[in-house]
Amino acid sequence: MNGMDLTTTVLIIIIVLLIAGFIVYLSYQQNKRDKEEQENQKPDQSTRTLRLQAYERLTVLVDRIALPNLISRVNQNGIGARDMQLLFTRSIKEEFDYNITQQIYVSPDAWNAVKNLKEQNMLVINQLASALPPHATGMDLNKLLLEYLMKDKKGQLHDVVSEVLSYEAKKLL
């Protein structure tokens, strides 16, 4: 091998090593960026805690506006069906409004499930109350609501919503 061939070979080796080093450097930088992005996507502990608390509060809300629980909690003896209807719907609205800020911490699907439960329960209460005669008592409305719950599976929507909330909360753990 003459001096020119040796110099060319050394230059080629140096160029190959520089290119290989540059590729390794770029790969390292890309891995570093990917890892940083991944870390930024993971909720930190305080965010996770807030989200879990939101799921807990919404689970309590779902339980409180479930028709069977609402009947046992809000029931008042000696009032008419229309007054009972107003008590039920006001209680649902107040519970919902009190927890409305929790929607920023939960998934849109979870929030929509809670919102749909609220709307469905109010619709059922209003429809059944309107089917009663004007002189009906609050107990008549309660009885009609309980009969509806036993006959129609849609009346058990609160169980489904609770399962959705529980499932999503467990994903955070």
How is this fold's topology laid out?
Blueprint: H1 3-41, H2 45-65, H3 67-74, H4 81-98, H5 108-131, H6 138-151, H7 157-172
Helix pairs in contact: 2-5, 2-7, 4-5, 4-6, 5-7
Tell me what you see in this structure.
The protein is mostly helical. It folds into two domains: 1-42; 45-172. Helix content is 81%, strand content 0%. The chain has helices at 3-41, 45-65, 67-74, 81-98, 108-131, 138-151, 157-172. The longest helix has 39 residues, at 3-41. It is rod-shaped. It starts with a helix and ends with a helix. The model has no long low-confidence stretch (mean pLDDT 88).
Low-confidence stretches: none
Q: Could you estimate the helical fraction of the residues in percent?
A: over 70%
User: What is the structural class?
Assistant: mainly alpha
Total number of domains: 2
Shape: rod-shaped
Profile the largest sheet: none
Q: Helix and strand succession?
A: HHHHHHH
Rounded mean pLDDT is 88
Give the amount of beta strand, in percent.
under 5%
Annotation field: number of helices: 7
Number of strands: 0
Q: Measured on Cα atoms, how large is the radius of gyration?
A: 31 Å
End-to-end gap: 67 Å
Short summary:
By secondary structure, this protein is mostly helical.
Tag the structure with descriptive keywords.
mainly alpha; 7 helices; about 80% helix
